[in-house]
Amino acid sequence: MPYEPPEQLNIADHFLAARVREGAGGRVAIRTDTGNFTYEEVLALANRFANTLVAAGIQPEQRVLIALPDGPEYVRALFGTLAAGAVVVMANPALPADDFRHLLVYTRARAVVTHRDTADVIQSVARESRTAPAVQVVGDPAFDAALASAPTTFDMFPTHRDDPAIWLFSGGTTGKPKAVVQTHRSFAYTTDCYAKGVIGYRADDITMSVPKLYFGYATGSNLLFPFAAGASSVLFPEPPTAEILFEMIRRHRPTVLINVPTMIHKMLAHPEAKQQDLSSLRVCTSAGEALPAELHRKWMETFGVELLDGLGTAEMWHIFISNRPGHARPGTLGQVVPGFEVEVRDEQGLPLPPGETGWLWVRGGARAIGYWQQMEKNESAFRGEWYVSGDLISMDADGYVTYSGRGDELLKVAGKWLAPAEVEGCLLTHPAVAECAVVGRADGHGLVKPIAYVVAREPRDDLGPELQAYVRERLDAYKHPREVFFVDALPRTHLGKVDRGKLGRAEVTAR
Asked: 187 Cβ partners below 8 Å, 6+ apart?
């Protein structure tokens, strides 16, 4: 039977305080380059933060925007906000002022927690906000002193399992992100189904993540999941590079690496990749973008660490289709996580037979309340128990799911459907390509053609035609990019995904 969370549920208690009650308070919960923190210490930090929030007048159900780098301060703010019964809104601390301005208007956050390195931008924007949120700055002497003097005990607010807990932002790559209102129930449910039931997090695990904690994929895999098992999480504030990851792996010897295809490619392309010792890892997960089968093959050949691709969404919080340890099929997303149900349906919502490509419908105990202020999109995406994701998939007779792409990203070229990820996967196998993205653009006759944007390792004049020929040799001719533009970097969304909207509108300057 699927896991049924208790009616009274606060995930600050479920993931943190419960470990202390169970006698695991002395275990290491967080590992950093400057020191470790036990579960007892993290709970005390969270309780201090909750007391400080309440003293500042924050009430249950009010929203608190957290814009912090990864570290114990982030964990303290997240669990402290939840303990007070307030709702966490997670944001990338590196967002520009205009994006923070939009967030404050959109979320009506009553408090913002940020770091002194980003405080000037946020304080300036907050002064313009009609909600006049209190801005708490980590590193500000007054705020730090208030935290230090706050009690280390707190009477946790008795939230209902269906109360809002965290606002996540959908990882859309073609427009403004939507706030997904997720409940306490969802986080407990998926932890039981996926983290415990599929990956098998255990107390001796040490986790490390490429995505940062404001991304729901990492919130689960590198914080909530290890905390549920009494394990420990490695946190570091720096934007990850292959060099930083290899050094962190040497230093902390993680057992679970939470990864994304872009970084998998960068790690494999590192000139000293074959000399790296990844023997501490028992598993590496991949999500967020499509993982080409060739990239999977190269990973296994180079590092020999099991790589598990999967698919999840903010709307169903976290991964509900995943490859299993010992049963991974490269090029697929794996099978449906027990506790969830996935169907492939046609345009009329009717189920399709095995092997047919159609729309992904999913249901399970982690469905969001809905999108904030997006009624039309709610009506389209949430249909009773089901969430209709906008992703196109197929499922074979064994239940293995193959990803075809986002419906709003597929291109109709020469009367045939083209998934950009297929062309990108091919380009990434060329040794001169560091990163790439493929989008559609209308030619002079109004016909859509694939266009490639490439970050090259060593740009040269003849590389564009070479890449076009490279794709033609490996894929159907209509799939090759009609033009190749070279750029210094690909534009990214707030979650670090390629911003295809900007590329499609030619808002990026080529070299």
From this structure: 11, 14, 15, 165, 166, 220, 224, 317, 366
Helix H, strand E, coil C: the string for 132-186 is: CCEEEEECCHHHHHHHHHCCCCCCCCCCECCCEEEEEECCCCCCCCCEEEEEHHH
Two domains, one topology: 11-185 and 411-504: no
3-state secondary structure string across 113-135: EEECCCHHHHHHHHHHCCCCCEE
Section 209-238 average pLDDT? 97
Q: In the CATH hierarchy, which fold is given to the domain comprising 187-406?
A: Rossmann fold (3.40.50)
Question: For residue 229, what is the enclosing H or E element?
Answer: helix 225-229
Give the Cβ contact number of residue 105 at 10 Å.
14
Residue whose C-alpha is closest to residue 292's, from 153, 172, 427: 427
By DSSP bridging, strand 283-286 and strand 357-364 are: unpaired
What is the rounded average pLDDT of the residues 149-159? Answer: 97
Give the rounded percent of residues in the chain with a pLDDT score beyond 70.
Answer: 98
Instruction: List Cβ neighbours of 241 (8 Å cut-off, separation of 6 or more).
Output: 266
| Angle of the 261-269 helix axis to the 293-303 helix axis, nearest 10 | 50
Q: Write down the pTM of the prediction.
A: 0.88
DSSP, residue by residue, 408-433:
TT-EEETTEEE-HHHHHHHHHTSTTE
**Cβ proximity of 60 and 157 under 8 Å:** yes
Other CB atoms within 10 Å distance of the CB of residue 41? 19
CATH hierarchy code of domain 11-185: 3.40.50.980
Q: Are 202 and 248 in contact (CB under 8 A)?
A: no
* Selection from 87, 140, 78 nearest residue 109 by Cα: 87
Domain boundaries, the chain: 11-185, 187-406, 411-504
- The DSSP symbol for 337 reads P
* pLDDT at 413 exceeding the cut of 90: no
Statement: residue 433 has pLDDT above 50: yes
Rounded Cα distance between 368 and 314, Å, is 8
